[in-house]
Each structure stands twice: as C-alpha cells, then as structure tokens.
Amino acid sequence: xxxxxxRLARRWCSGALRSxxxxxxxxxxxxxxxxxxxxASQKDFENAMNQVKLLKxxxxxxxxxxxxxxxxxxxxxxxxxxxxxxxxxxNKAKWDAWHALGSLPKxxxxxxxxxxxxxxSASSESSGQVTPAADRKQPGSDALVVTSRDGITTITxxxxxxxxALTPQMYHDIMLALEAxxxxxxxxxxxxxxxxxxxxxxxxxxxxxxxxxxxxxxxxSGAVLLRDFVDCFIDFPKPLVAVVxxxxxxxxxxxxxxxxxxxxTDRATFHTPFSHLGQSPEGCxxxxxxxxxxxxxxxxxxxxxxxxxxxxxxxQGLVTEVFPDSTFQKEVWVRLKAYSKLPxxxxxxxxxxxxxxxxxxxxxxxAEESSILQERWLSDECMNAIVxxxxxxxxx
Length: 396
Ligand SMILES: CCCCCCCCCCC/C=C/C(=O)SCCNC(=O)CCNC(=O)[C@H](O)C(C)(C)COP(=O)(O)OP(=O)(O)OC[C@H]1O[C@@H](n2cnc3c(N)ncnc32)[C@H](O)[C@@H]1OP(=O)(O)O
Fold this sequence. Notes:
Its EC number is 5.3.3.8. 48% of the residues lie in helices and 11% in strands.
C-alpha cells in the first residue's frame, strides 16, 4: 500500500483527473456550490477533482482509495476489468476499492465523490482554486473576465476593440475583483489585457455627454472613483503581477508602480500623455516614478509624455522583465505557476512588510493627485484635448 498515495497523487497531478479552467464573466462570478441534497453536476465533479489536487493535508491512503474508486465508478461505471494478481499490491488495492462499489449508479458515485471532497476541503483548508462565495455580489459587464487556476486569479481587461480603455463600470468591477481576489484561495493575482493592447487608459468618452450643470459634480465623483480605485491597488494584500501583453497608456502605466512584478512583452510600450490631455499624474506615479527612475526620467514620462519601449521601461525599473513576444505567454505563465506554489501566507506577509512602510504615504499622495485631477478635468486644456481625440484629430 505504501506506493498508493504517491501513485494517486501523481495521477491527480498528471491531468488524468482533469481540472477545468474556471472562467467567470461578470456578473456570473459564482462557484457551483452543491449541497448534499442536490445532484452534483459535471461541473461540480470537475471542480471537486480540482480541489483534491489542492488539499493541504494528505487525506491518507484509505480516503485516496475511496476517491479513486468513486472517480472510476463515476466515469466508467461498475468495475469489470480483470482482478490484478495478489502480488500486484497497489493495483489490487485499487481494484478492490472500485469493485466494492458494486453497481452503484454513476450519478451517485459522482455525488459521493463531490461530498467526500467537500468534507475533506472543509477540514483541510484547501488552497488554489478560487472559491468566491456565491453570495458575493459581482455586478458588471463582459469587459472584465476573471479566471482562477493553479493558485492564480487572473483579471483580464476584455475590450480589445477599444484597446481595453477603462469605463467607469470597469473601474468598479476591477475593485470588486480585487476585493474578491484578496479573500479567495489564490496565492497571487494577475492583471492582463485581451487583444493587442494591455490598456489604453481611461476611456476618453467618460468625459462626454455630461449635461452643462453637472460638470463639476461629475469631476467630483470621478475623483472619488479614481481615489477609491487606486486605494485598492495600494492595499491589495497578495503579490500582484501585471502581465503586460501589449502597449499601455495613461493610468494603466502609472498603476504599474503599485504592482509587485511587471512582466512585459517586447511589443509593449509605455506612455502617459497627461500634458497632451491637459491632465496630471495619478496612480501615485508622482511619487513612485521619481523614486524608481529618478526625477528627470520621471519628468520625461509624466510631464512630456515620452513613450518608452519595454526595454527602456525595464531599465528604468518600471518593468521587471521583458520577454520576446513569441514566447511571452508561455514563459510568463510557467514562471507564475511556479511562484504560485510558494507558501501563500509567507508571500502575503513579505509583501506587507515591504508595502506597509509606505502605505500611509501612498494614500496621502493618491488623495492629493485625485483632487488635483478633479480641477484639471474642468480646465479648457483638458476639454480641448478630449474633443480633439474624439474628433479624431489627435492620436496620443
Ligand atoms: C469627469 C468624468 C470622470 C470619469 C472617471 C475618471 C476615472 C479615473 C480617470 C483616471 C485618469 C486617467 C488618465 C488616463 O488614463 S490618460 C490616458 C488616456 N488614454 C489615451 O489618451 C489614449 C487614447 N487613444 C489613442 O491614442 C489611440 O487610440 C491608441 C494609441 C491607444 C491606439 O491607436 P490605434 O490607431 O492603434 O487604434 P484606434 O485609435 O483606432 O483605437 C481603436 C478604437 O479604440 C478607441 N480607443 C482607444 N483608446 C481609447 C480611449 N482611451 N478612450 C476611448 N476610446 C479609445 C478608439 O477611439 C477606436 O475606436 P473606434 O474604433 O470606435 O474609432
């Protein structure tokens, strides 16, 4: 019996008991929770298989054999393969466990498997698969996709036809997704973009269709939104990784100073055309950029809107590492999967040791930047720049 645990564990990890990529599109971010009285769906079964791989405590050989038997019964039906020889201890033990289930229906075996895993998870505090509570309300749109796999929660900007420009709904949804990710079982959290851009920054149409008497109120509420949004990044407790899959503009660049790691494709560029837009720096960049690259390089970016290549951004400390575009996704995800297996509590605590020292300062800077921007949004310079962009006169 000694090798059964190892064999089963290898089998669990080999993909033989396949785990689905759990994709959630807001607003349907819900775990399929299956109580004992309900019938387990195929999705519940697959989720349970996934959870088994993430159990922290070894459940012991007896339980593993039970899981194996229920899995075989649920997927193949009653055991009718030849009995292994008496000296083939491992396979005989597995055969015995499966055979003992007799003619138990597949659906019942599936349900029993889900129930057993659920009881093991409760007592073992499983890690890895995202298990957002079903009652956590997640309003939103298709412009954000949240996936959970291998201990990594990935938040993907999904508005590729608009270069992933950020709408107010997306700001709200990102905040909700970060809040959920901070509490889920994942070890690290990733922000990335779908399509050829990482993100083109604030959606400039956010400034349109404002009735004349409401401009000031909209600027005020915009500043509150900005402040709350950036606060979520300052306070995020787990390692936060930006997977920069293409060019980045505006707030998507400034926020990188609040990430723990920034991986970029060599196709990415980084620019913050704030002056061109009659605006001013946000995302704590007025502090993080001079700190990381020195005041004059920061001024080139934040005041003059200089566009950096990925390699230049790496030299300036804004990007952690640059990868060839052809191997970017593969290399980055291999790396992140390895990191996600490190002890999550240790990573959290280490991040906090690094971040806590500066938190108060960052919050104060965020408040100040937001309030300066509130004024800027009311300026002629800003209005004219936005009208120019929207009338296609200016590409920034
Ligand atoms: C008072 C209200 C307050 C509201 C709430 C505020 C909340 C916080 C605000 C925080 C402050 C943030 C500041 C910033 O982020 S500043 C940076 C803003 N971004 C830009 O200036 C980029 C503008 N876009 C471009 O310059 C180009 O589109 C780009 C270089 C990104 C790509 O050029 P390309 O030629 O490759 O592609 P297109 O221009 O044809 O783009 C395709 C379509 O996407 C639309 N698009 C792209 N970016 C934006 C954007 N930022 N906002 C709105 N729309 C965008 C573009 O118009 C095209 O659309 P159509 O196909 O319909 O023409």
